[in-house]
Structure formats: C-alpha cells, structure tokens
Amino acid sequence: MSSHTIKNPSFGHTSEKADHNTREQLLDAATALFSEQGIASTTVAQIAAHVGVTSAMVHYYFKTRDQLLNTVIEERIKRFLTYVWDPVTGREDDPFTLAKDIVIRIIKASDLMPWIPQLWSREIVNEGGMLREKMIRHIPIDKLKQFEDCIAAAQKRGIVNPDIDPRWLFISIIGLTMLPLAAVKIFNRVPTLVALNKDDLARHIIALLMHGLANPSLGDGTNSG
After folding, report:
1. Cβ neighbours around 133 below 10 Å, total
2. pTM for this one?
3. Cα–Cα distance, 18 to 29 (Å, whole number)
4. Cβ neighbours of residue 208 closer than 8 Å, sequence gap 6 or more
C-alpha cells in the first residue's frame, strides 16, 4: 500500500495501521470462506459481511476477483509452503527424519492455518479448482528436488526401500496428511473415528512411512543414517 494516508471509501481517512488491518481481515475472511464453501460459491458481499464492512471496501483493496485469488496464494498459501519447505536445506542425509519432519510440519501448519486442508482439496487438487493453474508456478521445485535427492541417495546406500519412487514420495505424504485433515468434519461423525486427533494421525502416518521406507532386507532401518 502507499506510504501516505489513504482515503477509505466507507470511513474516510484512516491510519496506515487500520488500513493494513482491514486488508488483512478481508484476506483472512476470503481465505476462510473459500476453504469452507468454495471460491465459486463465495460472493464479495459475503466476504465484506464477514468483516463488517461494505462490498465497496473489498473492491477498494482487491480490484478484481483474480487479484484477490492471486493475493490469497501470495500472502496465505505461500506461507504454508514456506513453513513446510524452508527448513529443508539440501544437506540432509537422514531420509527418515526428513520425511517425518515434513509430516509433522504439515500437520502443525493445519493448526496455524486451519483453512489450508480444505482449500487445498477444493481448489488445488480437485479438477476445475480455481487455484490449480495459479499454483503450478509456485511449486517449490528446488526443494522437491532436494527431497527426492536425499531419498535417492539413501537408496544407493541401501537403507531405503529400492521400490520407493522418490518422485512419488512427497505426493504420498500430501495424500496421507491433507485428505484426512480436509475430511475431519466427516470423520468426527463416524463413531469409531470420533476420538482420533492430529497426534494420532501424525503417529499413524509416520509409522506407515518409516516402515515403508525402510529397506526390507535390512529389517527396521529407520534409525540408519
């Protein structure tokens, strides 16, 4: 935003801080509503009502729907990607710890950004999702390559199952984490699943991965380096 005081269409002149807060609130509201009911089903009026302002205020900060969607990616979804991938340096030599830590960060991110699982499922994974094409250019290719290289190097050392495809492993992690996190409201209605929590999910996924990654010819190799 500009450094000078901006005229607000509903409330007159505001401080830069108030202006920034309103924009952040609108962005939070849009992200939450997109997650809960889908982008196509969310109107500008609903976003405005969520914050208690007029629709004109939404258009003031986000001139078009496309600008709003781009901002959701740049200022919200990329926070998730950063949280998950920034700790990966490319110098890791323990594939088991690397995979386990990524699982833990994805699940923790769903606490910090509770909208991410459903938004990911609705608008990125689903055919026709309105963020799918926009997200492709934000895939952290370098980080994915570092992850794949760590797995492949561990396969050459004989500690990772040779039947694991390093290119598919992160996709598998996303499926194991995001699907149950996105469907938690459904699972909470199933009597046998209602008592499950995110700690249970993390433990379950890590157990699957650790034993799936380990080279079966070595027995349990999850503590190998």
Report:
1. 9
2. 0.86
3. 16
4. 176
E strand segments, the chain: 7-8, 12-13
Give 87's pLDDT tier (boundaries 50, 70, 90): very high
Domain assignment present for residue 109? The answer is yes
Angstrom CA distances, 81 to 24, 165, 217, stand at 19, 22, 35
Q: Whose structure tokens read 């801080």?
A: 17
Residue 89 phi, psi (nearest 5): -105, -20
For 172-211, how does the pLDDT look when each residue is reduced to its tens digit (9 = 90+)? 999 999 999 999 888 878 888 877 889 999 999 999 999 9
Q: What are phi and psi of 160, to 5 degrees?
A: -115, 140
Q: Look at residues 41, 50, 124 and name the one whose alpha carbon lies nearest to residue 80.
A: 124
* Owning domain of residue 26: 1-63
23 neighbors 1 (Cβ within 8 angstroms):
yes
Overall number of domains in the chain: 2
Residue 225 maps to a domain:
no
Please, how many CA atoms are within 13 Å of residue 170, restricted to the half-sphere of its CB?
A: 21
Token match 């004109």: residue? Answer: 56
In the numeric block, the tokens 């962005």 are attached to: 27
Beta bridge partners of 160: 214
Write out the two tokens for 58: 């939404």
Q: What angle do CA 163, 167, 168 make, to 5 degrees?
A: 70
